[in-house]
Backbone:
């Protein structure tokens, strides 16, 4: 570990080692390194900073309870999956209040091309990774921004210097490509 500078950011491996040692510094170091990432992800789904903060705290608790025995290859991806799942669960709890219309729309859009969870539960993540790996970087960023981070079309347009119509068109084309890709591999709606 970084004994020379106790304030220096730790590597993922060093943070995971703290979890395995059951050292409470693991949570603090995780928050220092990945807190903003987790908060942005939760906020993009929930659109409420208090709910997002609670989901991030729940993420740290889940990480604490999962490591050990789990030893994540990528701590960021591990935390991202946890915070996203917790935030989606919170989103469904809040859905009656209609707190995030953009995320609701993105789920509806994606439902047009993704098969039901019970049909593709095991193979779908690998297929999605394969599909995303084939996309040009700009298309992949827009697609991931919309469907992983839950950003609105307006936010994506601003972030990438495009018009809302251009973003909508590109994301729609990518969804059609995904549907065709999954159909070729035997997954249909």
Residues:
């Amino acid at each position: 570990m970084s004994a020379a500078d106790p304030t220096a950011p730790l590597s993922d491996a060093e943070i995971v080692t703290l979890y395995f040692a059951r050292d409470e510094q693991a949570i603090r170091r995780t928050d220092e390194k990945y807190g903003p990432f987790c908060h942005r992800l939760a906020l993009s789904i929930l659109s409420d900073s208090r709910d997002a903060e609670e989901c991030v705290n729940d993420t740290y608790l889940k990480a604490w309870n999962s490591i050990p025995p789990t030893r994540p290859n990528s701590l960021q991806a591990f935390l991202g999956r946890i915070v996203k799942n917790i935030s989606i669960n919170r989103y469904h709890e809040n859905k009656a209040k209609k707190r995030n219309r953009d995320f609701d729309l993105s789920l509806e859009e994606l439902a047009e091309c993704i098969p039901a969870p019970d049909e593709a539960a095991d193979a779908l993540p690998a297929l999605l990774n394969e599909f995303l790996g084939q996309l040009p970087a700009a298309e992949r960023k827009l697609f991931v921004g919309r469907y992983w981070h839950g950003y609105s079309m307006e936010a994506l347009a601003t972030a990438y210097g495009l018009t809302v119509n251009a973003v909508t068109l590109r994301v729609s084309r990518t969804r059609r490509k995904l549907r065709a890709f999954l159909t070729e591999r035997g997954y249909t709606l």
Q: What stands out?
A: The mean pLDDT is 85.
